[in-house]
Amino acid sequence: MSDDDAGADAPPADPSTAEPGAGSATEPRHFVRMFSVWLVLSAIVVPLYYFLVGPHVPPGTMSSTAEENQFDFNVLMVLALPVLLAVWVYLGYCIMTWRAAKAGAADPVGGEVARNHLGVQTGWIAITSVIVLFLAGFGTFELIANNGAGGGEGPNPVWTPTSAHILPIQVIGQQWTFTYRYPTFGGFESSKLMVPVDTTVAFHVTSLDVIHSFWAYQLSIKADANPQVDNVAYTTAHHTGSVTVRCSELCGLWHGAMFNYGQVVSKDAFESWAKSTEAATAANTKLLPPFAWTYVPDANGAGGGFYNNDTVDPYSPSEVYGAKQPAS
Amino acid sequence: MSFGGRLSAVLVLLAIAIGLAVYTVVTYLTPQSGVVDFTAAQPAGAPVTLTVQTVGSIGYGAHPTWVTYMVQAPDGQWEHDTTWKVPAHTRINMTIHQFDSGSPLRNQQWGRVQGVTGGVEILNGKPISVYDSNTGNGVGHTFAIPTLGVNVPLVGVDSNASNICSQAPCGSDSVSNTIKVSFVTPGPGEYPWQCFVPCGLGFLYGNGGPMSNANYMGGFLDVTA
After folding, report:
1. CA distance B77 to B96
2. If you count residue pairs, one on A and one on B, with CB atoms under 8 Å apart, how many are there?
3. Contact B194 A284 (CB under 8 A)
4. What is the pLDDT of residue A313?
5. Where do the domains of chain A lie, and which CATH numbers do they carry?
6. Could you read off the pLDDT of A226-257 as tens digits, one per residue?
């Protein structure tokens, strides 16, 4: 600081000849000083963040997608922290060195001198371009390499897992809760999400009414639930534990209450639960419509037509969730 | 004016603006009615008797054609409130008088009785665990507390009956179904309940109007210690 003070207290350089950042015979090399401070801070802060904070960054490591998303967040932070530090160091250095109240501080430089510094402009454009392009490439790679990274890929996913066995679980959004159908266990429907550990799962997300969004926080799955759309997202749970499911699309009065809980359990426990639930709900499952990836929610309820009302055909020409199809 | 004075003025104006915004939001979101308290005269640990009714049209107020729940307060009066204060870890013996007609469920999952004692409801004296909403009069409404896994289908009455109630509160002179269930409240907290039948006639997917306004087809179970 004493050097700064000495330099700043010196007579101000002639703005018309001074080269910004390069210093002069009577002035310290400000850029070198700022860069040095920034470099040291970055070398300390970034590793501290990555190794101490990084492992605790949401959404944790319960699933393959959670691990990947946590890694992605940490990469973003590792790139963002030096930028943040650069801004802070620059502002702090400016305040300490060139504040107006400081005796002998140079007048603000403007006009021609403030323009056309090739090094600053080129450096700014180059650095920001490299960062943005790298992030675009990195993000795209992570999406492809991680089978959509937990996001919905639509009805025809192009980045699919290579697992030999994939468990399909259908997520049905409706105002205001999620229910789950298990097509490989007779198509029973459950109000609770159960997921086996170490098994690749394909969530087929759809809706019976408005747009919802299925967000299984600890699994790091987030996929929009659109009526008549089968939105597929993949993950593999690596640890057992509780999962919180929330709707993350504003969907009406009780949107805030649209959450429930699930469990990641051992494969044996899942098999046991699925088979016992299939048996326990058999009477209701046979009343459900045949399993389909999407359902048309237009025939039932007050918006469609009431049962026993001969003036309204309660059946849709395509499959309708909850209504028996007319014999044909 | 000094810098301190200007700063103080700005902060005061900012505080007033924030206060007005918070007041507006809270006023908008707060139900325009009270809470029916089932804990006041309740002996500790004794079961709570909760009696409600579902009516096809309330018949009065700002939305006389809207379907609604009504609740019988401890003093015997029927109230148009859907926030019910009950004690924690206590058995709730619930009786629901269903006065509305029904239809097939959009999702037959809500035809399954869930989360109540024995997994059954007593429908007009007979226990059932599943009701096929494609038969009979269908299901008019459900009483569901999603966070507790509770779901009770309320079978509809005959829509061709001559004595369908159209003015709340409804009495025994109107056609109705009586459903009885029991469940135990969890620890203290606010547990939203709702109907899963899209019964908001004339609204998008049936989930607007009475389905999207407090005090009609949804509310809170306010569980206190």
Report:
1. 15
2. 137
3. no
4. 43
5. 2-102+117-145 (no CATH), 166-285 (2.60.40.420)
6. 988 899 999 999 999 999 999 999 998 889 88
B105, A314: Cβ pair inside 8 Å? no
A160-205 pLDDT per residue, tens: 888 878 899 999 999 899 999 998 898 899 999 999 999 999 999 9
Same domain? B10 vs B120: no
Q: Which of A287, A297, A324 is the closest to B106 by Cβ?
A: A297
Among the partner-chain residues A191, A209, A322, the one whose CB lies closest to the CB of B114 is: A191
- Prediction ipTM score: 0.81
CA distance A191 to A280: 13
Residues from chain B that touch A259, judged by Cβ atoms under 8 A, are 147
C-beta separation of A235 from A201 below 8 A: yes
Is A301 in Cβ contact with B108 (below 8 Å)?
no
Question: How many other β-carbons are positioned within 10 Å of the β-carbon of residue A243?
Answer: 20
Q: What single-letter DSSP state applies at residue A49?
A: I
Distance from CA of B50 to the nearest CA of A (A): 23
- A306 touches B at CB < 8 Å: yes
- Per residue in A266-312, pLDDT (tens digit) is 999 999 999 999 999 999 998 888 888 887 765 444 433 332 233 43
CB-nearest partner of A301 from B149, B192, B197? B197
What is the signed CA dihedral for A306, A309, A313, A316, rounded to 10 degrees?
20
Q: Are residues B208 and B147 in the same domain?
A: yes
